[in-house]
Amino acid sequence: MPYFFLNYGGPGGRWWTQNSSDIAILNKACIDNYGSPTRQLTYKIKGITVTVCTYGIHRALLLHLPDGASHETDALFRQAAKIGTELCGNEYKLLSNNCVSAVAQVLNCLDKNIAANVVLP
C-alpha cells in the first residue's frame, strides 16, 4: 500500500515522504506547529485515496494507492508523487510556490478539473 505525503513548506524538516512512520512524524509536526487539522477531506480520484489536510493556514496532501490497483492507477499515483517531489525542489515563495499551490498542482495531475493553483477551503 504505497503512500505519498506532501508537506511542502511545512514543519518537520522534510517536505515529502513515502514512509508511513515519517508521515506520522510530519503530521505530528504540523499539529504541533499549526494545531490539529481544522479539516481533513478524504475522497477518491481514479482509484487513489486522497486526503487534503488543513492545519490552520497550512495545507498538506496524503495519497494512498490501494493494494491491487490497476496499472493505470499505479502510473497516475507515481506521476502525482513525482510532481510533488519535484515541486519540493522549488524555492518556497509565499505568493507563488507554497503549500496551497503544491497541493493544487498534484491534485490537478490526478484530475484536470481541479484548479492547478488553489485549493478551496
Q: Key features?
A:
5-stranded antiparallel β-sheet; 5 strands; 23% strand; alpha+beta; single chain; 3 helices; 121 residues; globular
Kindly summarize this structure in a few lines.
With 121 residues, this protein is of the alpha+beta class.
Task: Please tell me about this protein's structure.
There is one protein chain. It is built from 3 helices and 5 strands; from the N terminus they run ββαβββαα. By secondary structure, it is α+β, with helices and mostly antiparallel strands. The chain has one domain (3-110). It has a 5-stranded antiparallel sheet, with helices on both faces. It is globular and about 35 Å long. The N and C termini lie far apart (28 Å). This is DUF4105 domain-containing protein.
Q: How many DSSP helices?
A: 3
Class computed from helices, strands and strand pairing: alpha+beta
Secondary-structure element order, N to C: EEHEEEHH
**Strand arrangement, major sheet:** 2-1-5-4-3
Radius of gyration, in Å, reads 13 Å
The major pleated sheet works out as: 5 strands, antiparallel
How far the N terminus sits from the C terminus, by CA atoms, comes to 28 Å
Low-confidence stretches: none
DSSP summary, beta strand count:
5
Into which percent range does the helicity of residues fall? Answer: 25-40%
* Count of individual domains: 1
The rough form would be described as: globular
Averaging pLDDT over every residue, what do you get? 91
Strand-residue fraction?
Answer: 15-25%
